[in-house]
Here is the input.
Amino acid sequence: MEFSSASYPLALVAGNLSILSPCVLPLLPILLASAASAHRRGPLALAAGLALSFTLTGTLLSSLAWGVAFDGLRYLAALLLLAFGVLLISSTLQQRFAMATAGLSGSGNQLLASVNVEGLRGQFVLGALLGLVWSPCVGPTLGAAMLLASQGEQLYQVFMVMLMFGIGAAMPLIILGMLSREAMLRMKGKLLLAGQRGKRILGALMLLVGLLMLTGVDKTLEVWALDLLPDWYIQITTRF
Here is the structure.
């Protein structure tokens, strides 16, 4: 699996969908109301802490596989994409995954209870800790982003992919933070449904990419695309 500029928007969407998970979204009205009461810019500080946490954690873990090269790595990446795709499509498997990692989240919740959440600094620290606590819960989307990041040819590409995931996770917090608690509660059902549908679409894309990689068709499509795309577009996408 070779690194592509498409990894950035995919990571952004994965970040969006991570916050729309059933184990995360119901908590947002309480968290955002608490953040707003702590400081008028509290939701922004909370979102910034969460984005930074996901970015640094994902970059650290993704960099462990960065630069590793062996003959079977391409097929391993394809199999992992297929596994994440199936996990994102199946709500039942996601629930089982959440139950299997419930112990890790429980330990994190105990840590959150001891944090001082007053002011902007407190909300920023809370957001950073939430990134760690929610990591098991959003494992399918976070794992998919980390797999995309680990294919980067340069370390900054690994960081930028995870930064896009962090920004994607922070965006719903910022948007919902602008709404009242009553409005958030009214929208919760629609957001959960949108998150479930979005995960299925992302999962289907990952299944497609994984199958293309296993069959080698992705190489043919890449050569075909390079012949069709204009030079200026290729220069931009290969530069970043």
Residues 7-239 form one domain. The mean pLDDT is 76.
